[in-house]
Fold these 2 entries.
Entry 1:
Amino acid sequence: MTPPSASRTLAAMTSLSPQSPSSGASRIRIGSAPDSWGVWFPEDPVQVPWQRFLDEVAGSGYEWIELGPYGYLPTDPAVLTEETARRGLKVSAGTVFTGLHHGEAVWDKTWEHVSDIAALTQAMGAEHLVVIPSFWRDDKTGEVLEPDTLTAEQWRNLTSLTERLGREVRERYGLSIVVHPHADTHIDSEENVVRFLDGTDSSLVSLCLDTGHYAYCGGDSVKLIETYGERIGYLHLKQVDPEILADVRANATPFGPAVAQGVMCEPPAGVPALGPVLDAARKLDVDLFAIVEQDMYPCDPDKPLPIARRTRAFLRSCGA
């Protein structure tokens, strides 16, 4: 979204030999997302046009994409199907933002937001809906919007309504929700992620493990996969620059400005090492999407394509 250890990390990663299909490597499907092209909003003059994103993500060697912020890509399924198909692309998931810890009062508004995106996601043949909790401080301005910790009642709201969301989305659209721990939200650190997992029904709620966000918040992705493997339904592959992260923590920098500072970096220069993450995921013996996301909003429009090509080549060296 270039630490001193980058050379050691590179050596460790590139020493991994590609996996054979029988080892389970073929069950991890690699993709990318608008986020890796500096896209955070449906419309923003600093972002690349959606046509350029589709051209470049296909040209980087990816077959799978996410929808990104609703409205960035065409929302007419017929148009989007044509545009993706002629570039050899398929959609793995849509993304929604929720503030379910606020309770029943926000349900109707939340469902209105979710239903449009879920319908498009279903129409595109995808099976997952990535659910990102609302930020407790603004990702652009850093303005504190609410306390950074939840009360016991808010935790009950969050877990029970997320289960309801999982049930409704599955019954109405045939999709599985995967909740995305995220910096500057209430599902962030190992403690809060574990509390959330322990408080929700595994048949209704799975996790989208974003390796970069989890490291940003102090978590160990391999440990989480090994401990809660049955709850991992989706992966976002991302790394953080430890030196910049240390500065971010020291100055309590909000997530948006931290990204502009370069806290999310190009693999394999940061942490966590993605080879061990992929190895741990393979051991789960399930089908998983692993979508590359390197937060870098805002960015020069010519910056993403070379990074995407290098990242895809690097992941191939990890057997993915």
Entry 2:
Amino acid sequence: MYSSTLGRVDVFDDLIRGVRAHGSLFGSSMLTPPWALRFVDGAPLTLCTVLGGAGWIVPEHAEPVALGDRETVVVRGPEPFSFVDEVGTRAEPVACGQHCAIPDRGGTRHRRGWHESGDADVTLIVGAYPVHGEISSRLLETLPDVLRVDSGGTGDGVLDHVAEEVSIDRPGQQVVLDRLLDWMLVCTLREWFDRPGAEPPAWWAAQHDPVVGESLRRMHAEPAAPWTVAALADGARVSRSTLAKRFAELMGEPPLAYLTRWRMTLAAELLVERSSATIADVAHAVGYGDPFGFSAAFKRVRGVSPSEFRRAATA
């Protein structure tokens, strides 16, 4: 049976858990104009921030985004994008992947965890994130191609630690940087969802509601539990009609419809991750005692049977 290891798990906790920096830090690039770094590795999410200067993020199919000192952007992949000193720069693009090329000339120096003292107009710090599974893909669906967060937020303190860590090579550096980048990504997404005039996904705002937020936490902490509207309403200390009305207003669907969709997301991930698990095993893990009832629910939500989904996902 699936359950969370966190007593106070929320929707964001669940969705971001599969987004982790793991040995994927590009490092610190010290740049003097003109420059043009082109990121071609196809990472689902890439975080970029600059120190001591400014530049432009140029996506493949979107408008350029200015990036100022200590500002942060998150770029959604897998399309390539560039970081340039100015739009229309005369610099020749340098292709960057997990190990960025180091040109003989042109002002661009780049190596993972490498630093050289001297003058530079901009230091670029980049972290690329793999995104694993169906669960975290739901987070990506809520994000634009490029999101930008101003300096001065909670991520600034993390950025100071990142800048210090990339300045010299040290044992265990990659692990430290991975953890710092994870922390910085969480801070960046929080601030973007909470920015003035934001239109965050329904679940983000609903988490702060005393009625709906409590019900969401319970369903995410124990999705396989035999939840009813009455049980969820008791947990939130309201009537069933109050919960049903409030949930539909904030989430756009009834509580048990949301629960079914969430269970099917978990099931889709289990079908791929646990190749030895039978359909009955997966059904039981997400709260279904009857594999036939589970298969019918899965096909209704996902459009294919569990077996068809597994074959297509693992092909």
